[in-house]
């Protein structure tokens, strides 16, 4: 009976510790998510009462107008970074995860690439923006331009995409690769049809993080993209471009209530873009996994 009582007390103590840790986890989650929800509620409560759909179809004019130029400019920048930075980051992650080996001296062949990515991840965004201004806007005489902004933003997000891709690929079970090889699949075909498809959720998460960073950046764009109240014309150099974060940062400091409303409108549109990215990526991952399971 004494042994049974000791076991019962031990089980009860472990249950209490588990409940305590779970409670602390929920409290920590509240501290992390709570400020973000409060910020989103504040933005929505300030923007919705004064919302006008003309914001989406007009350009800034004087102390009012809309944000059509900034919305289209932000979408163009997001697409460009996805193509330039996303392609570079995913390919770098695939190389580090699938093709890098360790030589007889214990050194990794891709050590230089990995070190470069780690160093690049540590640079402040404003430093990259200033370097981009000196090297591209002034050094190459591009001026404020879309291409300069895309290059700088891509340099910012490549480390995140690379690490997310490499981590996702390394988490794919080895027997998946061995099974593909046993079925006679070529390495490239097996990588594309089995390994990458299995790692897709992690890769999409990295791309989503990169796009979120792109949407929220201001300092690098001030140095490279400048600002334009006109609509984007797809000219890569010698032409500034508008983006939403500029109006969030600038209009809030102006003494006109109409510009304050425009700043909140820009913030609300940015939130909608982020949620759209999140939902779209989840749907893409779910669909890809469904097809992958049906294919197997």
Short description:
The chain is mainly alpha-helical and 296 residues long. The protein has two domains: 47 residues; 242 residues, MetI-like (MetI-like fold, Orthogonal Bundle). 75% of the residues lie in helices and 1% in strands.
List the helices and strands and how they pair.
Elements: H1 2-47, E1 60-61, E2 64-65, H2 68-99, H3 111-121, H4 125-139, H5 146-170, H6 174-182, H7 187-216, H8 219-224, H9 244-251, H10 257-295
Antiparallel strand pairs: 1-2
Helix pairs in contact: 1-10, 2-5, 2-7, 2-9, 3-5, 4-5, 5-7, 6-7, 7-10, 9-10
Q: Please tally the helical runs, counting DSSP H or I stretches of 4 or more residues.
A: 10
The name of the CATH superfamily of the largest domain reads MetI-like
Radius of gyration: 24 Å
E-strand count: 2
Percent of residues in β-strands: under 5%
CATH fold type of the largest domain: MetI-like fold
For the record, give the distance between the C-alpha atoms at the N and C termini, rounded to a whole number: 54 Å
CATH class of the largest domain: Mainly Alpha
How would the global form be characterised? globular
Query: Biggest sheet, open or closed, and with what strands and sense?
Result: 2 strands, antiparallel
The domain count comes to: 2
Kindly describe this structure.
By secondary structure, this protein is mostly helical. The chain has two domains: 2-48; 54-295, Orthogonal Bundle (MetI-like fold). It is built from ten helices and two strands; from the N terminus they run αββααααααααα. The protein has a two-stranded antiparallel ribbon. Strand 1 and strand 2 form a beta hairpin. The chain is globular, with a radius of gyration of 24 Å. The model has no long low-confidence stretch (mean pLDDT 82).
